[in-house]
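Sync notes, pocket subgroup
Present: LS, DG
LS reminded everyone that the earlier model was apo-only. Rerun requested with zinc ion included. Inputs:
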Amino acid sequence: MLLPFDPECPPEEPPANADPLTWSMAYQLHRDHQPGPDGFCVAVTCRAGFAFWPCEPAKLAGAGLIEALDMWSVAAPPSREPRTGFSGGRGGGGAPAAPWR
Ligand SMILES: [Zn+2]
């Protein structure tokens, strides 16, 4: 998947075709959940639980940034069909992995 941004360092401003609200929420999450020098997430909530980075919120941020793009790439479908490719769909059963990890 070719992304119009660097997943390690996404821009604060959403790309031209991204949903601004989804992007800004995901970006905030991305900024708050960064790896510390000790390998743990620097967010206070993650530190309290000794969560290694990438923590679940960091993975969610990555998925959110991609979702922000995906929302506009599907040209306003009239039906609400479940999308595929977000967290692997069927099978798996585990926690969704960040798509680029
Ligand atoms: Zn975290």
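DG: Residues 20-69 form one domain.
LS: The first helix runs from residue 20 to 32.
Action: DG to write up.
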